[in-house]
User: Fold RNA polymerase sigma-70 region 4 domain-containing protein from Chitinophaga oryziterrae.
Amino acid sequence: MRAVFELGRKAYLNHKEIAEKANISEETVKRQISYSIKILRSILTVHLFLYPMSAVLMLNKIFK
Assistant:
């Protein structure tokens, strides 16, 4: 899945080119890229929310 995602994002290949290179169907390429984006979005959401919140809580504790 990672290789498919990287071919699309780093090598700038379209779905058809990725499918040919990886010897899989275009539909599989679409599903894998979509799933990869979904995973990255959830990871980023957690990190973008939790890290600033933990920093705020830590600073509040320090400066009280």
User: Anything to note?
Assistant: The domain at 2-62 is CATH 1.10.10 (Arc Repressor Mutant, subunit A).
